[in-house]
Every structure is written in structure tokens, then in C-alpha cells.
Design a protein that fits this description.
Strand content: 5-15%
Largest sheet: 4 strands, mixed
Structural class: alpha+beta
Shape: globular
Number of helices: 10
Distance between the termini: 30 Å
Radius of gyration: 17 Å
Order of helices and strands: EHEHEEHHHHHHHH
């Protein structure tokens, strides 16, 4: 039997994306959680797995694959059904466009919001947070418009785009829901009050078989 392992940090959106992809593909694996507080991803043992000291990492029967999108591509090639990147050139292009939109315009800004909030620096970083949130609202509005006319972000079915974007938005939601974020009036939590179509889309992902196993363990 093939032995698969995923090295991950709980709550990391890239790691969560990979674990969701494993659930969608119906693949079993052994979760290997690393403690970010202890910097276990920089330990000698883990650097032997990935010299860059980054997660997620998939080890599949002796094959090591690093980086979220590389893991997505590997899974789609090794286990084609259901496809993560579409079945036609147009579907593939739309999926990659949605991924690039998130990675180019949203992911780093969400990090600029969530990091200081998770570290208890809401008041100190208020300007940084609100500036980033203004840009993120623009991206969220585009997603909301898309989802007002469609079930999924890129095509008629679930794709890599949904699995990559969802954890980013959930990280934002969790950060914005903290008590010390309330004075900043970020206008994001709860999601259904501000972006109802995005909230419905999130609910569809949360209904996927295997979702609970992929959910960040320290958020439970």
C-alpha cells in the first residue's frame, strides 16, 4: 500500500489547500504536523525532507513534492479524477487566472492583515491593516460578483482555484473575528453579512466529503 505523508503547519492556507485537494481526490495520508511556535519546519530532521524549510510537503511512496501548486499538479497527474485544472483549454485558463488573481492581488495583503491580528498587534498595526483591507475588499467584491452568477470560482465545477482561495479567505475571517479587530471595523466578519455569495460558496466547500479531516486542528 502506498504510504503518503503531508507535512503541514496548522492554519497555514497553503497547507490547508493541499489537504483539501487530498480530500477531493479521496486519497489517504498520514498528517505530519509541525509546530510553528517551535520552528520545527527549520529543524534538522525536516530540512532533510525539504532543505528550504517550507510547508506543505507531500511525500508519496518515496517521492517528495514541495509547494502547493506543484503538489496540485502532481496529484492531478497521478490521480486524474476528479480534475483540479479542468478538462478543456478554456477551463484550465480560467482556473489559472483565478489562482494568479489570488496570489498576485490578495494573498500577501491578507497576510498583512492576519499576522498582526494573530500576534496581538491590532492597535500598533492599525494603519497597515486597514490599508490592506481596503485593497482586499476590492478583490472580495470581484469574487462576490463572480459567485453571484456561478457556483464555483472558475468553471461549472470545483477546481484548484476554489481550493486555493478558500483557505485564504478563512484565514482572513478568523483574524477579523478576533475581539481586538472589532475597533478597526474591517467589514468582513461574519462573511454572510458582507459577502453572502462568498459565504454560500464557502458553505459548499465545507460540505465536501473529507472537509473535517482537512480543517486546521488548532482551530477546532
Amino acid at each position: 500500500m502506498t504510504q503518503r505523508e503531508i507535512y503541514f503547519i496548522s492554519g497555514s492556507p497553503p497547507c490547508w489547500s493541499v489537504m483539501l485537494a487530498m480530500a477531493v481526490k479521496g486519497l489517504d495520508y498520514r498528517p505530519r504536523r509541525l509546530d510553528n511556535a517551535k520552528r520545527e519546519q527549520k529543524s534538522r530532521d525536516f530540512l532533510a525532507v525539504n532543505p528550504r524549510g517550507n510547508v506543505p510537503v507531500l511525500v508519496d511512496d518515496g517521492i517528495t513534492v514541495c509547494e502547493t501548486l506543484a503538489i496540485f499538479a502532481y496529484l492531478d497527474a497521478a490521480h486524474p479524477a476528479p480534475p483540479l485544472f479542468g478538462t478543456t483549454p478554456l477551463e484550465t485558463a480560467r482556473i489559472w487566472q483565478a489562482i494568479c488573481d489570488c496570489d498576485g492581488n490578495m494573498r500577501d495583503r491578507v497576510g498583512n492583515i492576519s499576522r498582526p491580528l494573530f500576534r496581538g498587534r491590532a492597535a500598533e498595526a492599525a494603519t497597515e491593516i486597514t490599508d490592506a483591507m481596503s485593497a482586499v475588499h476590492g478583490e472580495m467584491a470581484l469574487l462576490e460578483t463572480r459567485l453571484s452568477a456561478a457556483m464555483w470560482l472558475a468553471n461549472d465545477g470545483l477546481s484548484a482555484a476554489d481550493l486555493l482561495v478558500y483557505p485564504v479567505i478563512m484565514q482572513l475571517q478568523r483574524a477579523a473575528g478576533r475581539d481586538d479587530a472589532a475597533p478597526l471595523n474591517l467589514g468582513i466578519a461574519p462573511l454572510e453579512d458582507h459577502y453572502p455569495h462568498l459565504a454560500s460558496w464557502a458553505g459548499r466547500i465545507e460540505d465536501l466529503p473529507g472537509y473535517d479531516a482537512a480543517y486546521p486542528p488548532h482551530w477546532k
